[in-house]
Design a protein that fits this description.
The structure is a single chain. By secondary structure, this protein is an alpha/beta fold. It is built from 16 helices and 12 strands. It is globular and about 80 Å long. The structure holds pyridoxal-5'-phosphate. Residues 77, 137-139, 171, 173, 215, 244, 246-247, 268, 283, 285 line the site of pyridoxal-5'-phosphate.
C-alpha cells in the first residue's frame, strides 16, 4: 500500500525529443496544399515521452480511481450498482453507435422500436399510462414532471396553484427542480422515524398547492406507510402526487407508484437500470404519467402509425422541449438490455435482494453503530456515527478508514436529519462474502476507535491524498495545469 504522494502530470514527464513511436520519414514531394490562415504558427505543446512511460502513467492514474469494477461501493442514495458488461457490448454495436439523430425515421425503425419498447416497459414497471424518455437526469426528470403538472393545472385555468410541497428529508434536487419550474416550495416536516408528518401536511394543503413530491423509499430508506392516506388528502385538495423514483430498486417487481396513487414520476436509468453512474453521466431520467396526463408530456414523441411504422412527432407541445432530440439513446439500450436479460422473474428479485442486503448489514452492525431509525429498512439505511463517541472518532474518520481496506466510503453527513449520518446502500448484486468482509472491516474500525483512536483519526494511510484542507478545496479548487504545477498537492 505504498503510493507516491503526488503523481506527476504527463507534461511533467516530458523530455524534448523523446518519443514513443517510430515511423519512416515520408517524402510528400511538394508541400501539402493547406491555406495559410489554417496553418499553425507554432507546433502544439505536446508531451514528448517514451511509450512505456505513457502506458505506466495512465495505468497508474487509472489505479487511483475507485469504481464498482474495483471494489464494493456502498454509497447511499446513489445506487451505484451492477453494470452488466453485456449492455456495453450492445451499445458498442455499429448499428446503434453510428446512428445520427437527424436520420429520417424510416431509416431508424429499429432504434425507434427500442425507444418505444422501453417506454412501454417502464410504464408497466411504474404502473403509469405513458413515459417520455427525453430528460437527461433525475433532476431534469423532476423538472419535466413538474412542468407537466403545471401544464395540467394551467389547462384547467387553475392558475393559483403556485406551490409544491417537499418533505424536509428530500433529495436537494426536489426543491431545486420545483423552483426551476417556477413554483414556491413549502416544506413538510418528518417524524422521528423519517416518514412524512401527516398532521403537518394537513396544515399545508390548500388551493395554492400544485403538487406534493415524495421519495419512496424515503431518504432514510424507509417505506412511507402513509402514502394511501397522503394521496387521498393531496388529491382532495386538488393537487397531484409526484414520485421521486430515482432509486427504484427495492420496489422493482414488488410495488408500483401508479398503484399507490401517484400521478407523475421519474426513474433514474443510471441508478436502477444499470447505466454506470458517476463521472457526470450520461444518464437519463424518464418521466411517467398516469392516464389523463399523456397530452402534457414534452415533444418530440415516438408514435406508432396505422401501418405499424414508427415516427417522431413534434405535434402537441404543452410547454416546450426539454431536449434537442429524444434524449440519451445509448442509456436506453442499456436499460432495455438489462430488463430483457433479467426478465420479469429477475426484476422481481432485484427489490427483494436490495432489501435483504441492506437489512443484513444494518443488523450486523447496529450494536456498534448508532441506528437512529429502527428497521426494517428498504435498500439503504442511515447510522448516526459510532455508538461510542467518547474518543471523538467521527463519521469522517470512519469513512476515511474504509479507504485503507479497499472499500469506497458510504455517503456521509447526508441526510441532514442527523449529525453523523453514515448512509449505507449495498445494492442487490453483492454477494454475502462481500457483505461479510465489509461488516468485518466496519467492526474492526469500531474496535480501533475504542482501543486506538489515533490510528482511525490518521487514516487513510494508503491513498495519494489523505487530509486535504476541505474548506479550501471546496472554495478555491485548483483546476488548471499551471497552478497545479506550481503547487503540488500534499
Ligand atoms: C440521485 C437522486 C436524484 C437526482 O438524480 P440526478 O440524476 O443526479 O439528477 C433525485 N432524487 C433522489 C432521491 C436521488 O437519489
Amino acid at each position: 500500500m505504498n503510493k507516491t504522494l503526488y503523481s506527476p502530470l504527463i507534461f511533467e514527464l516530458s523530455h524534448k525529443g523523446r518519443h514513443g513511436y517510430s515511423l519512416p520519414d515520408y517524402d510528400y514531394g511538394s508541400e501539402p496544399d493547406i491555406p495559410a490562415n489554417l496553418k499553425r504558427e507554432k507546433a502544439p505543446t505536446l508531451p514528448e515521452i517514451d511509450e512505456p512511460s505513457v502506458v505506466r502513467h495512465y495505468t497508474n492514474s487509472s489505479n487511483n480511481n475507485f469504481g464498482v469494477d474495483t471494489g464494493f461501493y456502498p454509497l447511499g442514495s446513489c445506487t451505484m450498482k451492477y453494470n452488466p458488461k453485456v449492455n456495453e457490448a450492445m451499445v458498442a454495436r455499429a448499428s446503434v453507435a453510428d446512428l445520427h439523430p437527424m436520420q429520417p425515421a424510416a431509416t431508424v425503425q429499429g432504434a425507434l422500436r427500442i425507444y418505444r419498447t422501453l417506454e412501454r416497459y417502464l410504464s408497466e414497471i411504474g404502473g403509469m399510462a405513458e413515459f417520455t424518455l427525453n430528460p437527461f437526469a433525475g433532476a431534469h426528470g423532476e423538472y419535466t414532471g413538474l412542468m407537466v403538472i403545471r401544464a395540467y393545472h394551467m389547462s384547467r385555468a387553475d392558475e393559483a396553484r403556485r406551490k409544491v410541497i417537499v418533505p424536509d428529508s428530500a433529495h436537494g434536487t426536489n426543491p431545486a427542480s420545483a423552483a426551476m419550474a417556477g413554483f414556491d416550495i413549502v416544506e413538510v416536516k418528518s417524524l422521528p422515524d423519517g416518514t412524512v408528518d401527516i398532521d403537518d401536511l394537513r396544515t399545508k394543503l390548500g388551493p395554492d398547492i400544485a403538487a406534493m413530491m415524495m421519495t419512496n423509499p424515503n431518504t432514510v430508506g424507509m417505506f412511507e406507510k402513509g402514502i394511501p392516506q397522503i394521496a387521498d388528502m393531496v388529491h382532495e385538495a386538488g393537487a397531484l402526487m409526484y414520485y421521486d423514483g430515482a432509486n427504484l430498486n427495492p420496489m422493482l417487481g414488488i410495488a408500483r407508484p401508479g398503484d399507490m396513487g401517484f400521478d407523475v414520476m421519474h426513474i433514474n436509468l443510471h441508478k436502477t437500470f444499470s447505466t454506470p453512474h458517476g463521472g457526470g453521466g450520461p444518464g437519463a431520467g424518464p418521466v411517467g404519467v398516469r392516464s389523463g396526463l399523456e397530452q402534457f408530456l414534452p415533444v418530440p414523441r415516438v408514435i406508432e402509425k396505422a401501418d405499424g411504422m414508427l415516427d417522431i412527432e413534434f405535434g402537441h407541445d404543452a410547454f416546450g422541449r426539454v431536449s434537442a432530440w429524444l434524449g440519451n439513446f445509448t442509456v436506453y439500450i442499456k436499460a432495455l438490455s438489462y430488463i430483457l436479460t433479467l426478465g420479469a422473474d429477475g426484476l422481481m428479485k432485484v427489490g427483494k435482494l436490495a432489501t435483504l442486503n441492506a437489512n443484513y448489514i444494518m443488523e450486523s452492525l447496529k450494536d456498534l453503530y448508532e441506528l437512529p431509525i429502527a428497521g426494517p429498512c428498504k435498500h439503504e439505511f442511515v447510522f448516526d456515527g459510532l455508538r461510542d463517541k467518547s474518543n471523538g472518532v467521527t463519521t469522517m474518520h470512519v469513512a476515511k478508514s474504509l479507504l485503507d481496506y479497499g472499500f469506497h466510503a458510504p455517503t456521509i453527513y447526508f441526510p441532514l436529519l442527523f449529525h453523523e449520518s453514515l448512509m449505507i446502500e449495498p445494492t442487490e448484486t453483492e454477494s454475502v462474502d462481500t457483505l461479510d468482509s465489509f461488516i468485518d472491516v466496519m467492526r474492526n474500525i469500531a474496535r480501533d476507535a475504542a482501543e486506538n483512536p489515533d490510528k482511525v483519526k490518521g487514516a487513510p494511510y494508503s491513498t495519494p491524498i489523505s487530509h486535504p484542507d476541505e474548506d479550501e478545496a471546496a472554495l478555491n479548487p485548483i483546476l488548471t495545469y499551471t497552478r497545479l504545477c506550481a503547487q503540488p498537492t500534499s
